Amino acid sequence: MPVALITGGSAGLGLALATALAERDWNLIIDARGGDALQDAATRLGPRTVTVTGDVADVRHRRELAEVAAGFGTLDLLVNNASTLGPSPLPRLAGYPLDDLEIVYRVNVLAALGLIQLTLPLLAAAPGTIVNITSDAAVEPYPGWGGYGSAKAALDQLTAVLAAELEPSHPQLRVYGFDPGDLRTAMHQRAFPGEDISDRPEPATVVPALLRLLDDRPPSGRYQAGHLLLGSEAGA
C-alpha cells in the first residue's frame, strides 16, 4: 500500500485529504500539535494511520516523522500542509512584530524544507510526490497579509527551485505547489475574527483537485484548485 505523510492532518484540508486517501487504502502518517484532535482524526481514518504529536518547527519532531516514514520502507507522498497565520488580527507590515514574523517563516517555510530534506531519499526512491500547500496571498498584495503571504511566496519559490534542481537526477519525482483558495477553516477564521466565513467552501471540496494531481502527475509546478477542478492542464 502507498504511504503518505501529511502535516497538520488533524483538521481542515489535511484531514480532508487524509480521509480521501484512507478510502483508497493508503497508509497514513499524520501530525498536529494537539494530541486529542490527532487521536480523534486517527479514529476516523482507521487502522492504517500512525499519529505523531508535535510541532513541525521543532527539528526533533521532523526527525521523528522521517523515522516513522522510514519504518514503512517507502514514502509516496509528502504534503506540507501545517501552517501558521501569525498574529490575529492581522498586523500591517509597518508594525509587524518581527519575533512573530520569524515564527511564521519558521513554520511555513523552513519546516517544510527541513522535512523535505529528511524524507527526500524515500521520496526519490518511490518515486513520490511532494505537495507544498500555498495560498493566493503569495501572489496577491492583500493588506494585512504581508507576513503570511510573503512566507507563502517564499515557499512558492522554494518549491519551484527544488523542482528545477531535482528534475535532472529524479525526473519521475514531482514537486507541486497547491493553492486551494479560500476555505472554511479555523485558521481562515482567525484571519477574520468575529466575521462570518460560512460562505467559504469546505476543505473537502478541493480534495478532488489534489487527487487529480496525484493521479495524473502533471509536470512539477504551481497549481490552483479551481483550475484543476475545471480541467485546466496549465499550472498557475
Task: Please give a quick description of this structure.
The chain has helices spanning 12-23, 35-45, 59-72, 98-125, 146-166, 186-191, 207-216, 225-229, and strands spanning 3-6, 27-32, 49-53, 77-80, 129-133, 174-179, 221-224.
Q: Could you characterize what this model shows?
A:
This protein has 236 residues and is an alpha/beta fold. It has a single domain (3-229), classed as 3-Layer(aba) Sandwich (Rossmann fold), CATH 3.40.50.720. Helix content is 45%, strand content 14%. The chain contains 8 helices and 7 strands. It has helices spanning 12-23, 35-45, 59-72, 98-125, 146-166, 186-191, 207-216, 225-229, and strands spanning 3-6, 27-32, 49-53, 77-80, 129-133, 174-179, 221-224. It has a 7-stranded parallel β-sheet, sandwiched between helices. Helix 5 links the parallel strand 5 (129-133) and strand 6 (174-179). The longest helix is centred in the middle third of the chain and has 28 residues, at 98-125. The two termini are 31 Å apart.
